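Researcher: Before we compare anything, I want clean individual predictions. No alignment, no superposition, just each chain on its own. First chain goes here; please echo the sequence and then give the structure tokens.
Model: Echoing the first chain and its structure:
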Amino acid sequence: MENSQKIQLKKCIPEKLQTTLLREALLGDRASVQDPHHEKIITVTTNGSIHSPKFPHTYPRNTVLVWRLVALDENVWIQLTFDERFGLEDPEDDICKYDFVEVEEPSDGTVLGRWCGSSTVPSRQISKGNQIRIRFVSDEYFPSEPGFCIHYTLLMPHHTEAPSPSLLPPSALPLDVLNNAVAGFSTVEDLIRYLEPERWQLDLEDLYRPTWQLLGKAYIHGRKSRVVDLNLLKEEARLYSCTPRNFSVLLREELKRTDTIFWPLCLLVKRCGGNCACCQQSCNECQCVPTKVTKKYHEVLQLKPRIGVRGLHKSLTDVPLEHHEECDCVCKRNTEG
């Protein structure tokens, strides 16, 4: 009779709800795992890493792993940095219920964070003392890939009391320091991800959201200019004569905007350069100068500090740069005597 009642009860519960209840029951058994035999103690003397089984491939189901990192020196902290390759089973209602990785402060049992899914890489974590605990749980359903990998390093406390520029958020860095950091990125996406790791996708969408100006000046004016084709010139002329050539200019210096950071930091422009052979007896100095100058617009990413507000204002803007289309040698006459 008892078994038949269970069968009738099971029929009354929707299949999806049955699965949820079963998984939560399993989770309840695993989330509170504190038994010493579940915990692997790792003595930290240098940099290292831990990862989910089979990383970067699909991790196994029905797994509970606990690591406790312990530094021999009691006067150091442990810093955890998650690998960019991160992916666990997605959350339900924005809650990591099933598969997750969790970081805990052993001294007081404080959970520093629990993460799952694959949309965001967890942020860097720092222990309060010389120990930190990491727990990984997977249930019997839907394992994902690649799992996770956590790199750990030792950190001296006095290094974080007075944060160095590398530990400050990008928006808090001095503009000159941030300008040097920005120079190392090759795409706008990588740059925005560095500036706003928590909301970079939203910022990227805002940046490219269409406005009333469907075609920027860089698109329109860029097709009206005529550029000298140096390949049509003789080799001697290309190497030695006064002609428009590619020059790399730093935008902050060119535009005299030291209050702003531009990406890319520099752009190629056509500027007059080369040798002149016009010096004669009455010529004191000969210079290669532009005889035809045009203004072209270049679309760049502009970063400016917000007045009175923390963070950076980001926008795509067109900056005007002078291009020399025609050049000539001009002699400065000797007027002495």
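Researcher: Okay. Second chain, same rules.
Model: Second chain and its structure:
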Amino acid sequence: MSSNEISHENLPHEQGAHGTAVAESPFADPGLPPHKPRIQDIDERAAKRSERTVALLFTISMLATIGFIASFVIFPVDKIVYVWPIGHVSATNLSLGLTLGVALFCIGAGAVHWARTLMSDTEFADDRHAIEATPEVKAKVMADFADGARESAIGRRPLIRNTMLGAMAMVPLSGIVLLRELGPLPEKKLFHTSWSRGKQLINMNTNEPLRPEDVVVGSLTFAKPEGLEEDDENFNNKIAKDALMIVRIAPQDIKDRRELEWSHQGIVAFSKICTHVGCPISLYEQQTHHVLCPCHQSTFDLSDGARVIFGPAGHPLPQLRIGVNDEGYLEALGDFAEPVGPAFWERG
């Protein structure tokens, strides 16, 4: 053997030296620590206490879910409360967050306490297996599932089982309630406006009540109902249905009989909201008594019941019946006879 040739037998047994395989693993299998029984495993009274604790957590979850649903009924949307140290918060948001949080937390805490105190905690080692399941593996899985169900004591602990099922069944009710907030229920809001008998017609420009002499032949005036102010929270929603268009036509030029009966000395009040897509109408031609919607050119004849004579609008503008009160101001004699707004019947 030459000086340049060295036997592998003389190399030190260093890990990874020139790819030399290590004969023995340097990491010994530590094995599993000896199993120590819990107090619940040897004392049935302790197990009963844990069972009652888990059932209590599940019951609290059910009560919190009921509280979540009740919050929608109890607290109005605009209710503000002071909570230290947070400050002023929405009562609805606070109650919904707290009740839903408690409901979910108690289910999780109950499941954890159940697993740590009552379910089997015996550890065992199992060999890795191929991804594809063989019939034997499937059978073993089903057997393990049955063993797990038996060791969880769910069959012997009906109080836990029933309260858990109740809590898990009730929590989805919170989601059903949340579906209610996808949008407001229409109820009868589309059928009615703020107009009612005795409400004065208020000039939108001067914010003063209108007298018959304020409306001259050929003029166009816009009005709102008495009591509706621009700084009101729901002003935009209300004016979208309440806005009026006031014109004065010589009584002999009014062709529609009902329109004449619902007017006062030729003063007629029609909804300003186009029946096509809801644009505000503002273009008036006094010679023909036609009004034009600037959005899609729907044209209405105000001397003939505001019927549609051109454009995509589907029906005439609703008319408001008006009169004069004891003080000489124009007032409404009721609400619109038909719903105000665009494509009402198509919207349902």
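Researcher: What stands out in the second chain?
Model: The first strand starts at residue 80 and ends at 83. Additionally, Helices lie at 39-42, 44-74, 91-117, 135-151, 158-179, 235-242, 257-261, 344-347.
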